[in-house]
Design a protein that fits this description.
Blueprint lengths: L4 H15 L2 H10 L3 E7 L4 H13 L3 E3 L1 H8 L9 E8 L4 H4 L1 H7 L3 E5 L1 H6 L4 H10 L7 H5 L3 H12 L11 H7 L5 E5 L12 H18 L7 E3 L7 H10 L3 E3 L6 E2 L12 E2 L6 H9 L1 H5 L7
Parallel strand pairs: 1-3, 1-9, 2-3, 3-4, 4-5, 6-7
Antiparallel strand pairs: 1-8
Helix pairs in contact: 1-14, 3-14, 12-13
């Protein structure tokens, strides 16, 4: 855990939730209810990801895949009690060593939502360029600020920054995807081509990001069907849902924190997920896994 004011406060608050019995009450409720805990990670360490899987298993949770979730949403499978869905966003290179072997060892299905441009180019993610450029005083803007402007403006700034920096690859490689795709427990979904904020894109840009990422992944994965999608930053509109349906996607995930229940599973293109925070304390992440963190920490902002 990084010793920041935010993380120390998170550690203290999560311990209140844990030792007051609130976590146990919520855990038991989930285990005896028709609901699914949808979790998403980004770039977890091996020890962190292993700890999460072990805690979930020790506490009686089972695991389902995105394909099983789709079948449940169609009524083809019974709604489970106390199930967990594991997803990862971006397609970080470290996922290959830190996540995939654990998924295989513990027979836990996972879905990795990959952005194709960093994979094909062997590049770093765009926000890494901005963070480094900011630290070197090359630019005077931030990642949150760039998420709020239109995509064309963001790309102009990124082009200027990329022209002055060389960063190491951060994404899985094409060969990594092909190798990982042989696992019985790992599937891939789309996370766009360039990881823009889709609501800041024009309709043409949004359509390209949604349709081309699917095509590119299916070529890399040798015609393995890609029918799951995750919205970058969790942002979407009705326009994106239309593009997804027309492109042949069957299910899509936001970053809205909630359990998946009978009340919301029919909204297949706006499914919720609980975000895991890799640099926070494990007690905070226990509270995140059970949802108690999002139920009670009203000052929390979902990023």
């Amino acid at each position: 855990m990084k010793l920041t004011v935010r993380n120390v406060l998170g550690y203290l608050l999560s311990n209140v939730f844990l030792f007051s019995g609130m976590v146990s009450i919520k855990r038991n409720k989930i285990l005896h209810s028709s609901c699914i805990i949808p979790l998403y990670f980004h770039n977890p360490s091996k020890s962190f990801f292993l700890s999460c899987i072990q805690w979930l298993k020790k506490n009686g949770f089972s695991f389902i895949s995105t394909n099983e979730l789709l079948a449940i949403s169609k009524g083809e499978l019974d709604f489970p009690m106390g199930a967990v869905l594991i997803t990862l966003d971006d397609g970080w290179r470290n996922n290959k060593e830190n996540v995939v072997p654990i998924a295989n060892e513990f027979k836990v299905p996972i879905t990795i939502f990959a952005s194709t441009a960093p994979i094909e180019k062997g590049d770093a993610y765009w926000w890494s360029y901005i963070k480094v450029a900011n630290s070197k005083n090359i630019i005077n803007t931030t990642v949150p600020a760039l998420k709020r402007i239109n995509n064309e403006e963001r790309n102009v700034i990124l082009a200027q920054v990329r022209g002055r920096l060389i960063l190491s690859p951060e994404a899985l490689s094409v060969d990594d995807l092909k190798e990982i795709n042989t696992s019985s427990y790992v599937t891939f979904g789309s996370h766009t081509v360039n990881h823009p904020i889709l609501t800041r894109c024009t309709s043409k840009e949004s359509l390209y990001e949604i349709t081309e990422s699917k095509k590119k992944l299916q070529v890399i994965l040798e015609n393995t069907n890609v029918d799951c999608f995750s919205y970058p930053n969790g942002d979407f509109s009705d326009r994106e849902i239309i593009h997804l349906k027309n492109a042949g996607y069957k299910i899509a995930f936001t970053t809205k924190p909630s359990l998946i229940t009978n009340n919301n599973i029919s909204n297949r293109y706006s499914l919720p997920r609980y975000g895991m925070l890799e640099d926070a304390s494990f007690t905070e992440n226990i509270c995140r896994m059970t949802g108690i963190w999002f139920d009670n920490y009203l000052l929390y902002k979902n990023k």
